[in-house]
Amino acid sequence: MDEATAFAPGHVTAFFAPYPDDDPARAGSRGAGLALSDGVEATVRRVDDADAATADSAADGGLAGLELDGVPAEMEPVRRVLAELRVVAEVEVSSEVPVGAGFGVSGAAALATALAANEAFGLRRSENDLVSVAHAAEAAAGTGLGDVVGQFRGGLPVRLDPGAPDHGRMDGVPARPRVEYVSFGELSTERVLGGDLDPVREAGEAALARLLDSPDERELVAAGRDFAEEAGLLVPEVAEAVEAVAAEGGLGSMAMLGRTVYALGTGLSDAGYDATACRVDPTGATLRPTE
Amino acid sequence: MDEATAFAPGHVTAFFAPYPDDDPARAGSRGAGLALSDGVEATVRRVDDADAATADSAADGGLAGLELDGVPAEMEPVRRVLAELRVVAEVEVSSEVPVGAGFGVSGAAALATALAANEAFGLRRSENDLVSVAHAAEAAAGTGLGDVVGQFRGGLPVRLDPGAPDHGRMDGVPARPRVEYVSFGELSTERVLGGDLDPVREAGEAALARLLDSPDERELVAAGRDFAEEAGLLVPEVAEAVEAVAAEGGLGSMAMLGRTVYALGTGLSDAGYDATACRVDPTGATLRPTE
Questions:
Q1: Mean pLDDT, residues B82-89 taken together
Q2: ipTM of the assembly?
C-alpha cells in the first residue's frame, strides 16, 4: 500500500488542569472535553528513499511536504510524528473545523498521521504506541496537552491522569448529544500555556471533581463554563455568546483554548447565532477502511 | 426520558488466557479479538414503582421482562446489571449475530443494557463504571471473561490485563478489515471454562506475546489459529473450514468459544462457503443518539 487515510475528531476541551513534564509522554493534563463528528483527515503518501534523498527530507524530519486544506503549511507535531516513526512521507491534511480556534486540529493531524503512516508503511505498531507518539509530538511542540488522547477515545472523554496511554487512565461521559459551535477567530495556545498555570490548574481540578461526582453532559459543560470564568480565560465575544445562550435556557461554554463558543443541542441557534451543528463523535480516531 | 437504546458490537475472541477471580471485577482474561459491525441492540424501558411491585420484580433483580429477538428469554448478565444499578426495567434485545456461537451476545446485551439504563434512568454513571458493572455481571454469571471490555473499546481490542476498566489496561491493533463468518451452532462456554484452564492459559499467553511483538490483523488471526490447535479447542466443522480457507490462500480461525469460523477479507466466500460479511466495528458500544 502506498498511501492510507485516517480520521481524528475535533476535540473541544471543556476544562483542564495542566501538568507539564520534561518527558513529553508524561506531560499532559487532567480534564474533560467533547470529541466532535467534525474533524480532521490525514492522508499519508510514501516517498521512496531515492526521492527522499533528493528532497533532503531526512534533514526535514521525515516530512517531504504537507498541505493543509490544499495549501502548503507547517505543522510541527506532524513532522515530529513522522520523524519518530522514521518514515519519509507527504501528508495531506483536511479539516472540517477551523484551525487555531480550540478544536485541537494540530493534535488531530498528528494522530491521524500516526494511524495512516502505520498502515501505509506496514509499521505494525499498536494503537497505544501510535497514540503515545502523537501525544508526545504534540506536547513537545507545545501545541496541546490533552487533545490527542481525547481524540483517540472519542465521545465525551475524561482524562483522569495526564500523559500518553501508558501513563494516563481515562474515563468518559456516556452521552452523545448534538453540539453547536461558532468561532470568532484564533487564540494562541502557546501564549496561555506559557503563563502562570497555578490558577488554571486549581480551577481545572475543581471542575474535574465536580464532573466525576455527577458525570453527565450538562455537568460537563456547566463545569467548563465555571472553569473558564474562574481561570480568567473567557474572551469578550465568547462571554457574550455564552450569556446569550443561557438567556434562552441553553447551556454553552468556551472551547479551551480558542475564541470559540459551543453549546448543547440548539443552544446557539436558539440565541440567534449562525452556528455550525454537529454531533459528539462516538468512535474516536480511526483508519479509513479501504476496500 | 422513558426509554433508551444502546448498541454493542459482536466480539469474536481470537485467543485468551483466563484468570478467574472471586471478585468478578478482577476476574477476566488476557487476549485479543475482533469487534464486529454486526452486534446487539438493547432497549431499556422504565417500569415505575407501582408496576414493579405488581410484577414482583424486586425479587426478580430489577428485570421486569426480557425479549430476545421478540421472544421472552432469560439472560442472567442483563438481570444482574439492572439489579446492580438498582432499577426496574423491561429490556428488548435484538441480535444481528447468532446466539451461543462465540460472538459474546450475553456480554453485548449486558453492556448495551448498562448504557441504555444509565440514559433512561438518568443515573449519571461514568463509562468505566457502566463497563465495570456489565463486566462483573458477565463474570459472575459465568458466561464470559473478556467480551465486555473488548466490546466497549471496539476495533481489534487487546486485553493486556484481566478485569474491568479499573483493573485492566487495554491496547488495540489499528486495522479495520472486512471480516466474514459462518456459524455451525452452539457450544457451551460454561463447560469449557469449567474444565482445566492451564493448557488454555499457556497457549493464550504465547499467542498474546506473539501478537504484541508484531501487532497487525494477520498476526491476530494467525495467532488465534495456532492457539485453537494448541489449546485443543478446535471442533471438526470449524477445523475443516479453517483449512479450506487456507487452501485458497486466506486466513481464518475459530471464534472462542463457539462453533463458528471467521476469516479476513473474502476468505470464506473464496473457499465456497455461504458466509456473512461485516466489518470491524471501529466505535465500540455506544448509546444510540435520539433527536
A1: 95
A2: 0.93
The alpha-carbon gap from A47 to the nearest alpha carbon of chain B, in Å, equals 22
Which chain B residues touch A129 with a CB distance below 8 Å? 171
Min distance A177 CA to chain B CA atoms (Å): 7
- Chain B positions in Cβ-Cβ contact with residue A165 (cut-off 8 Å): 171
Nearest chain A alpha carbon to B282 = A283
Task: Give B3-11+35-160's CATH code, choosing from 3.30.230.10, 3.40.50.150, 3.40.630.30, 3.10.50.40.
Answer: 3.30.230.10
A161 vs B: CB within 8 A:
no
**Residue B54, pLDDT above cutoff 60:** no
pLDDT digits (tens, 9 = 90+) for A3-26: 999 999 999 999 999 998 999 999
Q: What is the largest distance, in Å, between two alpha-carbon atoms of chain B?
A: 62
Question: Which one of 3.30.230.120, 3.40.50.300, 3.40.50.150, 3.90.1200.10 gives the CATH number of domain A1-291?
Answer: 3.30.230.120
Minimum CA–CA partner of A114 in chain B? B174
Whether the predicted pLDDT of B145 surpasses 90: no
B214 touches chain A (CB under 8 A): yes
* Chain B nearest C-alpha distance from A60 (Å): 27
Among A122, A282, A286, beta carbon nearest to B176: A286
Q: What are the pLDDT digits (tens) for A209-220?
A: 999 999 999 999
> Is the pLDDT reported for residue B58 higher than 80?
no
Nearest neighbour of B174 by CB, restricted to A127, A175, A214: A127
**Which of B:47-106 have CB within 8 Å of A?**
none
